[in-house]
Amino acid sequence: MVAQFRIGTRKSAMALVQTEEIARRLSRAAPGIEVEIVKFETTGDADQTSKLLPHGGKGGAFVRQIREAVLAGDLHAAMHSLKDMPGNEDTPGLVIGAMLSRDPPGDVLVLRPGLSIDQFRRARGKGFKIGTNAVRRAAYARRLFPDVEIIHYRGAADSRVRKLDHLELQRLPEGGAVGPADALIMARSGLERVGLAARIAYEFPVSEMLPAVGQGIVAVECAAQDWETRRMVGLIDDPAAHACADAEREVLWVLNGHCNSPVAGFATISGSQMSLAASVLDEAGQLMIEAARSGPADRPRELGRAVGLELLAKGAAEIIERSRPG
Prior knowledge:
Strand content: 25-35%
Oligomer: single chain
Distance between the termini: 49 Å
Number of strands: 15
Mean pLDDT: 90
Largest sheet: 5 strands, mixed
């Protein structure tokens, strides 16, 4: 049995909270194990200005360096927010050994001090600037609030809220700056993890804003041939979260969705049945294709494949190709 367990993570406050939870669960499941958390400043953490695409999307910005350390044998495992892991490609030599139980998956609205949700609702967002770096959130926001201005906004969850509160401008990769923002769209789970849930002014129901694939799920990735590590992390795997994630990520695989394509997917389980809804939007939020199906919960990938193929039949591939970098 592995006595010293090294797990890599980003150095952001939210990532550390997630990794510490993995360490607690591993210590309970395998008494005697000593977990060492190894912090990485990933490309996406070091560069708080650029869009993620030049870094290879979320996978290149937040995942690649830690994965390389696992493949090199320097780490037993890596912690990732599942929504940051590309779903349209395999990483040879690595597997997801465990997924923790899902935190609240929805998106929320955070307002600057002095702005009330009633003011925002009355204006329908007109005259307000909403900050986000997520193409999915931006597309949904443009659909829900056609007159709002979406501005590029980067940073860890706590630093984004700090910039909002202090009316700071967001620097742009090409020079100059935008802002300040009046509001942010963020993941509820991220705010809860850094102790800022009280800042939530409004929570979007999934009928308004479908979550990102894997949102709210923490994944533990390890080497495919490291059977002892796979056995150990398997002790903390949540089967329901893992099955839902498999269905959602299968949609991405079928669509060949990339980091610049607004794709959403969310699965739930009730008894022996799984329900899966997914959508593909254009970047302006004007066109949205949706699909939803139910099936046996023990066959999640088949359900994800069916939903993905339905989206393709409705024209999703054309939308995704238009958003693909030239």
